[in-house]
């Protein structure tokens, strides 16, 4: 995007536009001038997150150096407060940002590619990645926010449009400067705009240096004036009018004789000119405009080469100019910092204690926070791209009091930023995590913790209360229970999906107990309300067991960590954490080195383990989810117990994991030889594993049906199997999926009602004659070959040496055995004839059905008539060759005993055997050697399927 490239152009191509300054020195100078008040400065945490983390640290890839970050922020806050009287206010991005969705999608795609580079580098070289590949560790933004609370630094969180609200705060409340790294702030003519990437704190804490951007100097070098900046920013390309719509205009400014003109069309793809070339060309064009107020004439000239959507482009050009004009308004006169600072100080200690008392003023504070930004056009009302407009059912109505409390806490950074947007819009953005997309052993973080988020959505929308109310209504009306689904859109960038396509995730409610509504969870003050908050938090993380609440086993500040680890241990897709890896997490949490930043800095990790990097990233993503659930449930855990620096350090985890890999039984070695720490680890491990069967993975339940409103094409990608938590306690043996009496052991491996077809095909025989044949499936790798499936009617069961032949096929039914007196299944004449007719007709109909799947309807009818005639002929032949069927049992003769030579002759010539009527006499099989000349032996090798398959065992 052209606007984003202006920041780099300002630093590299405009000499004199970026000058070094010392912020503490400026603050001390300003403090000596009347009025003698503190020098407030605004920090944009969204663009300065890397510097707030403490800059580049080589071990950031291990999961986060949280104690090192805490030490840096402590030194920064003390230096600003005591050395120069510089008052910090940190503003976090709490917006959903749908107006900047394509930009966010491109950034997320780039972060995914960087994550793959990091994983490959660590896997091959076992060293930290280069500085240029820095990717913010999971949960970094919330860790910085918690650290600001600890050091009493004021925190603000934006709600709708991050850039406009930051500029409104800076403009309306008299801040002395803005520390950020975003081109939009540079183009909005901020008088004191400082670089966050160049921010450096000296070792003694007396100097805080950075670069100040002088936009007036950059505009002078580009030949622009202040009034040119909104039009200049609109024509560079931005989130309202993207580069793709301005590509033809940018190439026309260069002309056909430009050296880069040959790159205009390459391989049928849209190629954009370099950013610095576009900036120079657009600045020359804007400086030549005589009437900046006639936007229609400018738009017609800009889009004169456009061949489509002319009116839409003109309209968006006007909106872009209006957007940057509103952001570039001068500061209101006589506006001091006292109004915002004092109001924020009075609300700073309010947190969760008395939200109802200030609920009415929350909306007023929110409108005041916007200031003059109320005249800024709302970008959320603009039309979004068509592929983003996915219809979902309406969200349940949330009470106005709950929404006021949510907005109040959101603006002051007291609540997870996504909660307000879930309540109002039903949408949530997922960050990118360091994970190997080619590793099937570890699931993606967004999928691993999806079930926990689903229960949190159910808590937010009071789904349990809705279920209970609708159940009572259905009982009164004697009607079926119909609960409308609650769907939340989760936006994430993954391997198998686009970032601009959301995952539609259904909210769930607890099965074990009825969770109270959201108002009761947030505003209830009774003692039972506190216990309900805690139980809701534990239930969302599948950790509702008494052992975790026992301080003798799990210390309070380690409860959140143990809940996340327990949740990871119950992943239905397979075991994520091995025993030694779980011990490594617990051992580093109780280590004394965790609270010694100097020792952690001197700690050296010889080889960075790639699996340890991914496990740490998954764990911190789980901590991020736990912080979200804690705020959803009314914050049952105080924020002091949610700080990751109290239970995790990435480098320390890598060192413990390396020791565990060398000797997996050396728990004492991981605990630095201290028996007390070993006892703590064992107690926490016992509490985490209580009621979890680790011998085999738990069986995944069937996937939930998708809502009825979705089109069929959208069901598979958006509704993966959902795994509700298993009941607590040890799983009974017969409930295990691998137990022989488990119902799953008797189910077919294919879909219900569909029998598998062998890869070699099969044929249908009636009284020894082949009347039908069908093809098979493609052979499956690694399973070996299968013999041809033979369905026979009128052929006896095979007996070998008095034992049943082992076969995985279906056995002879009782109806089939009635035709054979030699297996003690005699019946009357009428029963034999009727059963023979029904069996022949059923098999003939199955043959016609198999033929109808591959032929047209006419051929199917023809095959049906043919099969009926074949079945009748087969029946007549069977009755002719079996006189015992039509002869009463009293008149039947005993079977004739055959000699060895006669048996061999008939076995080698089945046609002669049928002519002699020898089918009436059942020979003993297995006397001759098997071979291709022996059809009986070949039939025995094929292991035919006879009849239906539910009869009793074969008799010797």
Topology overview:
Layout (H helix, E strand, L loop, with lengths): L4 H8 L5 E5 H9 L7 E6 L4 H4 L13 H18 L2 E7 L8 H25 L14 H11 L3 E4 L4 H11 L5 E3 L2 H5 L5 E3 L4 E2 L6 E6 L1 H8 L6 H8 L6 H12 L10 E2 L2 E2 L4 H13 L7 H8 L7 H18 L10 H11 L10 H12 L29 H12 L6 H8 L1 E3 L15 H4 L1 H11 L2 H15 L9 E5 L11 E4 L11 H6 L3 H14 L18 H11 L9 H12 L6 H6 L7 H23 L17 H13 L4 H4 L4 H14 L26 H4 L43 E5 L2 E6 L14 E5 L5 E2 L2 E2 L9 H4 L11 H24 L4 H25 L1 H4 L13 H9 L1 H6 L19 H8 L2 E2 L10
Protein name: Family with sequence similarity 120C
Family: Belongs to the constitutive coactivator of PPAR-gamma family.
Could you please describe the fold and organization of this structure?
This protein has 956 residues and is an alpha/beta fold. Among the domains are: 5-221 and 331-375, Rossmann fold, CATH 3.40.50; 226-327, no CATH class; 762-946, no CATH class. Helices cover 44% and strands 8% of the residues. It is built from 38 helices and 19 strands. The strands form five sheets. Strands 1, 2, 3, 4, 5, 6, 7 and 8 form an eight-stranded mixed β-sheet that branches. Strands 15-14-16-19 form a four-stranded mixed β-sheet. Strands 11-12-13 form a three-stranded mixed β-sheet. A hairpin with a 2-residue loop joins β9 and β10 (269-270). Mean pLDDT is 76; it is low at 333-387, 701-757, 778-786, 795-839, 845-860, 881-908 and 910-956.
């Amino acid at each position: 995007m052209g606007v984003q490239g202006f920041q780099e152009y300002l630093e590299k191509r405009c000499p004199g536009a970026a000058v070094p300054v010392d912020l503490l020195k400026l603050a001390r100078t300003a403090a000596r001038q009347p009025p003698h008040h503190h020098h407030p400065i605004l920090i944009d945490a969204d663009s300065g997150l890397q510097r707030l983390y403490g800059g580049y640290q080589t071990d950031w890839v291990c999961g986060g150096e949280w104690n090192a970050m805490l030490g840096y922020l402590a030194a920064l806050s003390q230096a600003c407060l005591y050395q120069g009287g510089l008052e910090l206010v940190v503003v976090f991005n709490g917006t959903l940002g749908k107006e900047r969705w394509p930009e966010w999608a491109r950034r997320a795609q780039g972060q995914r590619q960087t994550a793959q580079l990091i994983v490959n580098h660590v896997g091959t070289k076992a060293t930290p990645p280069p500085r240029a590949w820095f990717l913010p560790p999971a949960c970094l933004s919330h860790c910085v926010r918690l650290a600001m609370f600890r050091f009493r630094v004021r925190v603000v969180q934006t709600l709708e449009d991050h850039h406009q609200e930051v500029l409104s705060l800076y403009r309306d409340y008299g801040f002395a400067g803005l520390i950020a790294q975003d081109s939009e702030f540079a183009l909005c003519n901020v008088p004191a705009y400082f670089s966050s990437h160049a921010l450096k704190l000296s070792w003694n804490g007396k100097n805080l240096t950075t670069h100040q951007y002088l936009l007036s100097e950059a505009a002078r070098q580009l030949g622009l004036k202040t009034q040119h900046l909104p039009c200049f920013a609109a024509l560079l390309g931005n989130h309202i009018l993207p580069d793709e719509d301005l590509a033809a205009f940018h190439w026309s400014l260069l002309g056909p004789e430009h050296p880069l003109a040959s790159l205009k069309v390459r391989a049928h793809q849209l190629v954009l000119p370099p950013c610095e070339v576009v900036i120079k060309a657009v600045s020359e064009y804007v400086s030549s405009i005589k009437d900046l107020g006639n936007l229609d004439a400018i738009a017609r000239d800009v889009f004169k080469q456009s061949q489509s959507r002319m009116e839409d482009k003109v309209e968006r050009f006007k909106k872009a100019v209006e957007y940057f004009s509103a952001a570039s308004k001068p500061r209101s006169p006589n506006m001091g910092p006292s109004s915002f600072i004092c109001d924020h100080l009075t609300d700073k200690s309010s947190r969760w204690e008395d939200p109802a008392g200030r609920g009415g003023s929350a909306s007023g504070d929110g409108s005041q926070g916007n200031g003059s930004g109320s005249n800024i056009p709302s970008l959320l009302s603009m039309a979004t791209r068509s592929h983003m407009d996915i219809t979902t059912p309406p969200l349940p109505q949330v009470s106005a009091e709950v929404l006021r409390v949510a907005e109040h806490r959101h603006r002051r950074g007291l609540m997870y930023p996504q909660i307000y947007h879930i309540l109002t819009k039903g949408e949530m953005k997922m960050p990118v995590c360091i994970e190997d997309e080619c590793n099937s052993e570890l699931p993606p973080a967004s999928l691993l913790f999806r079930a926990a988020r689903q229960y949190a959505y159910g808590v937010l929308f009071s789904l349990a209360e809705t279920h209970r109310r609708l159940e009572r209504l259905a009982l009164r009306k004697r009607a079926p229970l119909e609960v409308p689904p609650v769907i939340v859109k989760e936006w994430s960038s993954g391997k198998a999906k686009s970032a601009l396509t959301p995952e539609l995730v259904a909210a769930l409610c607890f099965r074990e107990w009825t969770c109270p509504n959201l108002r009761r969870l947030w505003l209830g003050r009774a003692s039972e309300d506190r216990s309900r908050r805690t139980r809701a938090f534990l239930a969302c993380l599948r950790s509702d067991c008494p052992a975790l609440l026992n301080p003798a086993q799990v210390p309070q500040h380690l409860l959140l960590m143990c809940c996340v680890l327990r949740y990871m241990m119950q992943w239905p897709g397979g075991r994520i954490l091995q025993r030694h890896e779980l011990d490594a997490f617990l051992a580093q949490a109780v280590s004394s080195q965790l609270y010694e930043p100097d020792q952690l800095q001197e700690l050296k990790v010889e080889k960075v383990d790639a699996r340890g990097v991914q496990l740490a990233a998954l764990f911190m993503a789980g901590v991020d989810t736990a912080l979200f659930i804690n705020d959803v449930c009314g914050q049952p855990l105080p924020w002091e117990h949610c700080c990751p620096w109290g239970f995790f350090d990435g480098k320390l985890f890598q060192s413990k994991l390396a020791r565990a890999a060398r000797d997996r039984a050396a728990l004492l070695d991981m605990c630095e030889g201290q028996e007390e720490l070993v006892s703590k680890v064992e107690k926490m491990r016992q509490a985490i594993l209580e009621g979890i069967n680790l011998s085999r993975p738990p069986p995944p339940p069937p996937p939930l049906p998708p809502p009825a409103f979705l089109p069929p094409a959208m069901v598979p990608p958006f509704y993966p199997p959902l795994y509700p938590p298993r009941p607590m306690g040890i799983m009974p043996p017969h409930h295990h999926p691998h137990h022989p009496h488990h119902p799953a052991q008797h189910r077919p491996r294919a879909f219900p009602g569909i029998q598998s077809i062998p890869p070699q095909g099969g044929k249908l025989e009636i009284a020894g004659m082949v009347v039908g044949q069908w093809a098979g499936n493609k052979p499956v790798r690694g399973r070996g070959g299968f013999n041809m499936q033979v369905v026979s009617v009128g052929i006896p069961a095979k007996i070998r040496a008095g034992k049943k032949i082992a076969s995985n096929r279906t056995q002879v039914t009782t109806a089939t055995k009635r035709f054979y007196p030699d297996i003690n299944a005699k019946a009357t004449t009428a029963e034999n004839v009727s059963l023979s007719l029904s069996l022949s007709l059923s098999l003939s109909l199955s043959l016609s059905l198999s033929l109808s799947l591959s032929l047209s309807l006419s051929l199917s009818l023809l095959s049906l008539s043919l099969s009926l005639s074949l079945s009748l002929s087969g029946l007549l032949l069977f009755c002719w060759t079996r006189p015992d069927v039509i002869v009463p049992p009293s008149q039947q003769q005993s079977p004739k005993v055959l000699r060895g030579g006669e048996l061999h002759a008939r076995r080698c010539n089945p046609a002669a055997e049928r002519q002699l009527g020898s089918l009436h006499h059942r020979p003993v099989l297995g006397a001759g050697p098997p071979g291709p000349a022996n059809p009986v032996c070949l039939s025995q090798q094929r292991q035919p399927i006879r009849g239906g398959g539910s009869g009793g065992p074969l008799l010797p």
